[in-house]
Specification:
alpha/beta; single chain; about 240 residues; 7-stranded mixed beta sheet
């Protein structure tokens, strides 16, 4: 991606409603699918480390990132072990296997996404979990995706098939950002949403609370649509 976009994401990921809601949903799911004590956790494509504090609540955190500036920002948080790396064939920590691997909006950046999923499965312990989040619906592909260097957005069956082809059993799969989907879809299709601009403080709090509330629905009700798909899958 353009260095300006990396910098923008680094500035926003601690407070922007979308990142906050994603962390709230992920936290809720990780509490539901209990990890072992002192779990070893790998955040693949960790960016500037916005998810590291949340993941550190569940165990010992490792992360890798291909962008040097983002990796430096992640290291500056002084949480876990961060190394340069890249999917699918340059995953660091060669002597480690993990109880949980997270992939927060990374897979769409990788040309050979199937190879990436298989490479991560190989680094999971038996019974280990993969938490995967991706943008949904190829028909929503827009200038935003081009600027962020996305190869694709994902359909439900496509993501299911690729996850299962990596020898993972899907434990939970659902859409999210359901409440704001109509607004987001109009913005994407009209070309008026090329980035993730920070809204006003009041709107940011409102959107955070609204979208975070989906964490109470996701384990119990398959939402009909959303701008993202989240998956919890397990290595047999």
């Amino acid at each position: 991606m353009d260095p300006k976009i990396y910098a923008e994401l680094a500035e926003q990921e601690d407070s922007h409603w979308w990142f906050c809601a994603r962390r709230a949903i992920a936290t809720s799911l990780l509490k539901r699918f209990k990890l072992p004590p002192n779990a070893k956790i790998l955040d693949a494509g960790c960016g500037s480390g916005g998810n590291l504090p949340m993941l550190a609540e569940f165990g010992e955190v490792y992360g890798f990132e291909m962008d040097d500036a983002s990796s430096s920002r992640a290291n500056a948080r002084a949480i876990g072990h961060i190394e340069p790396g890249q999917l699918p064939d340059a995953i660091p920590f060669a002597n480690q296997s993990f109880d949980l691997i997270t992939l927060f909006d990374v897979l769409e950046h990788i040309e050979d996404d199937q190879a990436a999923l298989s490479a991560l499965t190989a680094r999971l312990k038996p019974g280990g979990m993969l938490l995967l989040n991706v943008p949904a619906f190829q028909w929503l592909f827009s200038r935003h995706d081009v600027l962020h260097h996305h190869y694709r957005r994902y359909g439900w069956m496509e993501l299911k098939q690729k996850t299962e082809a990596a020898s993972l059993k899907i434990c939970l799969m659902n859409y999210w950002n359901f409440w704001l989907f109509p607004v987001a879809a109009i913005a994407r299709l009209s070309g008026s949403a090329s980035g993730s601009k920070m809204p006003s403080l009041l709107l940011n709090k409102l959107f955070t609370a609204l979208v975070s509330s989906e964490r109470f629905l996701i384990p119990h009700l398959r939402l009909p649509f959303g701008t993202s798909i989240i998956v919890i899958a397990q290595k047999p």
